[in-house]
Amino acid sequence: MIKLDNVSKVYRTKTIETTALHNINLHVPNGEFLSIMGPSGCGKSTLLNIMGLIDEPSSGQVQVDGQSVSNYLSKATSRFRNEKLGFIFQSFHLIPDLSVIDNVELPLLYRNISGSQRRSMAADALDAVGLANRKGHFPNQLSGGQKQRVAIARAIVGKPNIILADEPTGNLDSVMGDEIMDILTKLNQDNGTTIVMVTHDERMAKKTHRLIRLYDGTQVA
């Protein structure tokens, strides 16, 4: 489902060059739940962004769902990202002035579907994460765990093949974190969704199929 061959990422300024990733070779099969761990600044989020076609590698090849990606700024790549990938962030990234259902509906605005269909799909996604009764609320009326559930609903509303989650339990207590992991595990088991999750929590990582570790931009395990 995701394949990285000799992927490196170097950030350059006029005075300094920083290697974020160095020769990463990684194959994520269809239906796998993979976790990525490592110390802060080791390149975990950079790796996730490259998998999500948000950031472009300095060298190496990236394939997602069998498609090689070369032009990251093209409309075709944007459409592919919207249809194939769902993103979950540690800080939720909900728009405070929009209701819960409007936040969930956002990825569908870039697709050629009717407003009523968008609304129905958003409602179904909220039902899937147990928040059907909160669709008219606003983010500031929700707990942290509820906000992350909304973020998951937004990620799955378009029925993506792949979910990329950056510290999805990082801002939550252990009880809420377990609930979020239960939702992700159910998505993986019931729908066959491929999930790649960055985490600092060894306990959460042990709930996934496989764990890889990064150190200073290099895969060490």
What does the model show?
The protein has 221 residues and is α/β, with parallel strands linked by helices. It has a single domain (2-219), classed as P-loop containing nucleotide triphosphate hydrolases (Rossmann fold). The protein is built from 7 helices and 10 strands. It has a 6-stranded mixed β-sheet. Strand 7, helix 6 and strand 8 form a beta-alpha-beta unit. Helix 4 crosses helix 5 and helix 5 (144-156) runs parallel beside helix 6. The longest helix has 18 residues, at 174-191. The chain is globular and about 50 Å long. The chain starts with a strand and ends with a strand. The mean pLDDT is 93.
The count of domains is 1
How many strand elements? 10
- What portion of residues belong to β-strands? 25-35%
Q: Main sheet: which strands, in order across?
A: 6-7-8-3-9-10
CATH third-level topology: Rossmann fold
Q: Could you give the order of the helices and strands?
A: EEEHEEHEHHHEHEHEE
**C-alpha Rg (nearest Å):** 17 Å
Low-confidence stretches: none
Distance between the termini: 20 Å
The assigned structural class equals alpha/beta
Percent in helix = 25-40%
Can you identify the CATH superfamily? P-loop containing nucleotide triphosphate hydrolases
* Cα shape: globular
Quick structural gist:
The protein has 221 residues and is α/β, with parallel strands linked by helices. It is built from seven helices and ten strands.
Q: Features of this protein?
A:
221 residues, alpha/beta, Rossmann fold, 6-stranded mixed beta sheet, 4-stranded antiparallel beta sheet, 7 helices, 10 strands
